[in-house]
Amino acid sequence: MNTPAKRKLKVATTSLAGCFGCHMSLLDIDERLFDLLELVEFDRTPLTDIKHLGKCDIGFIEGGLCNNENVHVLREFRDNCNILIAVGACAINGGLPAQRNHLDLPTILQEVYHTSHGLAAGSDIPNDPELPLPLNKVHPLHEVVKIDYFIPGCPPSGDAIWKVLTDLLAGHEPQLGHGLMHYD
Amino acid sequence: MSDKTFVLDGKTIPYAEGQTIMQAAMTAGVYIPHLCYHPEFKPHGSCKLCTVKANGRQAASCTQLAQSGVVVESNTGELNDERRALLQMLFVEGNHFCPSCEQSGKCKLQATAYDLNMMSTHFDHFFPDRPVDASHSDYLLDFNRCILCSLCIRASRDVDGKNVFGLAGRGIKSHLIVNAASGQLADTDFTANDKAAQVCPVGVILKKRKGFAVPIGQRTYDLNPISAMPGVKQD
Amino acid sequence: MVSDTERHATYLDPILERHGFAATSLLQVLREAQEHFGYIHADAITYLTQKLKLPRVKIEGVATFYSFLYLQPRGEYRVLFSDNITDHMLGSAALMNQMCQQLWVEPGKVSEDGLVSISTTSCTGMCDQGPALLVNNIAINRLTPERIVNICELIRKRVPLSAWPAEFFAIADNIRRRDILLDSSFESGSALNALLARGSTETLQEIKLSKLRGRGGAGFSTGSKWEFCRAAHGTHHYVVCNADEGEPGTFKDRVLLTGYADQVFEGLTLCARIIGARKGFLYLRGEYRYLLDHLLVVLQQRRDKRLLGSSILGCADFDFDIEIHFGAGAYVCGEESALIESLEGKRGTPRNRPPFPVSNGYLDQPTVVNNVETFAASSLIALRGGAWYAAIGTATSSGTKLLSVSGDCERPGIYEYPFGVTVAQVLADCGARDTQAVQVSGASGVCVAAQEFTRRIAFEDIPTAGAFMVFDHSRDMFEVARNFVHFFAHESCGFCTPCRVGTRLLQNMMDKLARGNGSPYDFAEIEKLDQLLLSMSHCGLGHAACNPVKDTIAKFRPAYDKRLKHHEFEPAFDLDYALSQARQMTGRDDAGAHLGESK
């Protein structure tokens, strides 16, 4: 790397209603992380523990939207990122959390906090203002803000993430192709 | 008119009298995306994935008879964009959560979407409520994944002679039903030996106690993309 | 003790006998069973599986396809408000609201006492005298708040429909302009006598010479159709009259069958003689159930005059009769192959074509399907000759056309013109003022803007099945298109992916714009969906479903632009509302329990 330092792209990442599996896959690019760090610097991510992001080039979001905090974070990313990438099944179609969508939310809350076995006496639906409120339904990201790119998979492999990132950095439309394209 | 050939994406394809474009293309080893078509059953023409342009006119290749000299376009950017939109429609119409589906890796809907580079579901999801039928001792029906291809209906009616499956409702409320007053598979004469038990291209009709048998990486469409037509017999 | 099944056998047996236990009569049997029992009971289906030797899936499949059939109890009084845009313009939504409030019932639900259910249905063909509704499938028009009060009173007192005031059920013909067809003092049997005198082959030549084209909208040459069918091989030939007048805004067939049924049936009989059919069908939309008694009388009169039945007019080899089949609330059955499926007692799904009905129609036999108006015109041609007819209208659109005029005009009703009449002429004649647009040929037709009013009604310019809905400048053309988009989504048969899902997605997008959540992104999405419906759909319904949107975008773009309130993408749903259930369950209402719009 003896060319004069190009401005590094700023990247922020977050997990909404996800399991951090997609972040694990990001780490799975292994030694290519060094190459990546030559090209990008991280703003808000669980890796840096920065709480709010500044202006970024790329936002990388795993997980769908299951509560109002998810919506706030997603909006913050959309407002600050030039390119927003939905990463993984949950971000793209709601994934596992969205499997509650055929159930009525009040019924779920009733069952979880009032009627299921083994609850402590006086158990009640949490109503602390500090807590996020669940949405009636879980939504994929593209239903709430414009998403520029998608990396499917549960999780997408490190190779798939690397392919999309390097395609984007090289300035062409990401293509996964057979082997890297997975919904599971 | 003795020359029984047509041109498909620049390639000359021979056909026999009465063959559809799809049949001739498959015989010649050329893939046209499809979901409701199955070589063993009467063509249905409902999924519209196999739509091609024959002499510039769009037609479902599974029902369109091959004709001498016709110029057929299939693998074009325009048609593949429209096919991808149809796939996205099928994905948002039902509940297709691949990671928890036993059919993942051998599902034709999924494999076709891979092949057509479907990166997202694009449309707003309908998230319909479709209860699972676990009544039968050996088979499970997960209607969440039904794409209304009617292959099970055709197989049960035309091969098994049973009419275990049928289509009810209209429009977006169209749905698969089974032949019992209770609405339950256990109360039909469905058996594991039925042809209908084997034709579902997605993960609706599933054998119980046998899931995820093949490891990831070795499943049908892990090994080859669907456009390579794995599993299609070529005479 | 009467078993569950026997309870249904008592009313099903006579129905089944009348229909000869034929599986092809399934839809008719179900409809009549429902007239007796109020809905189709699961035990009734069990009984029918035995008697018709049909699998249960087949019967349930048919029963759930048609909007007017119910597998669950509906109200004793089933009220359906016509949902066409012309009904809305006349205030139908407020009237339906009023009725729901007065009878304490939510739209779409059955009242707790099982007395009444109130919902909407696609255009009932009464646009010239709306707002309209159906109660237990019988039409009531010219609704006013007072009339709604009266109807509620009758329902509350459980007065049987037969005892309701007769004027409620009065249906006017509203014929405003007559030409050759409506002016004719047609004499029963005259066209058949002309046919027998001239000969079948020669009469077919006259039909061809007349250049008569199908009046259902597509405009295929009637003579050619009859000729193809006549030449096609089959064990039987059939003739079918398509009276499934479902295109929103059309009601001419209603008027023809009211005042000119004899002439229509004579047309069918002519066709039968020419193509060699012994059996014919009138496929009548369920909304016109009230016409049944009248039509049966006309058919019987024709039999009495030996114009129907065996040895018609004394010809030993001329046997033909007509059966009336009802639809049950499915617009798609107006498509001829779907209509044939429905006639065969199946779900009304359009067939793959080719083959066409002329060679492979009803029961796979050669079949002519023509519109009501086409048959009525053919009677005139048989009587007065092809050359006479061809001289009327334009060179490529011979004869006259009935227009069903409704909407913003002083004199809605039926107008018969020679083909070639301008839109402006029709508007002047019907007393339309300040006209912004005309929707010609219904939801699937063409939206004509003011600068095009010099265009002509003719196959070569604006083809039409007959609807002519007028919109003045007070109307919002986006809402007109949105009404039609809802119509198509409701009427899509569901067979093919693009139409089944695409019409619903289009409806959702139009609703999103209507709610004020639209952005240029959504507009682009609508245009993409339009294209997909047009190129990928299985039949004309899907192809046409995008027409109202495409036309209004092209001609009334500002109606869309004003709804693209956001520069950036907005969700289709209200995010704050999406927290409503959690707020309710937690009792929270703090600022953190709400979501505003994005910045």
The chain-level structural class of chain A is alpha/beta
CATH architecture of the domain at 9-101 and 137-169 in chain A: 3-Layer(aba) Sandwich
List unreliable stretches of 5+ residues of chain A. none
Report the helical percentage of chain C. 40-55%
Spatial order of strands in the largest sheet of chain C: 5-11-10-14-12-13
Count of DSSP E strands of chain C? 14
Distance between the termini of chain A: 37 Å
CATH topology of the domain at 9-101 and 137-169 in chain A: Rossmann fold
Largest sheet of chain C: 6 strands, mixed
> Roughly how many Å is the radius of gyration of chain A?
18 Å
Low-confidence stretches of chain C: none
What's the number of helices of chain A? 6
Number of strands of chain A: 7
Walk me through what this model shows.
- The complex is a heterotrimer of chains A (184), B (235) and C (599).
- In chain A, 30% of the residues lie in helices and 20% in strands.
- Chain A is built from six helices and seven strands.
- The N and C termini of chain A lie far apart (37 Å).
- The longest helix of chain B has 17 residues, at 77-93.
- Chain C is an alpha/beta fold and 599 residues long.
- In chain C, 55% of the residues are buried.
- Chain C has five domains: 4-63; 77-169, Glutaredoxin (3-Layer(aba) Sandwich); 176-390, NADH-ubiquinone oxidoreductase 51kDa subunit (Rossmann fold, 3-Layer(aba) Sandwich), CATH 3.40.50; 400-475, Ubiquitin-like (UB roll) (Roll); 478-561, de novo design (two linked rop proteins) (Up-down Bundle), CATH 1.20.1440.
- Chain C is globular, with a radius of gyration of 25 Å.
- Chain C has helices at residues 4-18, 26-37, 42-52, 56-63, 85-89, 92-102, 145-156, 180-183, 190-198, 200-209, 222-231, 252-259, 261-275, 292-304, 336-343, 372-384, 386-390, 423-430, 477-491, 497-514, 520-536, 540-544, 547-555, 557-561, 580-586, and strands at residues 77-82, 116-121, 133-135, 138-140, 175-177, 237-243, 277-284, 321-326, 367-371, 400-407, 413-418, 435-440, 446-449, 467-472.
- In chain C, a hairpin with a 2-residue loop joins strand 3 and strand 4.
- In chain C, the strands form three sheets. Chain C has a six-stranded mixed beta sheet with strand order 5-11-10-14-12-13. Chain C has a four-stranded mixed beta sheet with strand order 2-1-3-4, covered by helices on one side. In chain C, strands 8-7-6-9 form a four-stranded parallel beta sheet, sandwiched between helices.
- Chain C is 42% helix and 13% strand.
- Chains in contact: A-B, A-C, B-C.
- Chains B and C meet through helix 2 and strand 7 of B and helix 3, helix 4, helix 19, helix 20 and helix 21 of C.
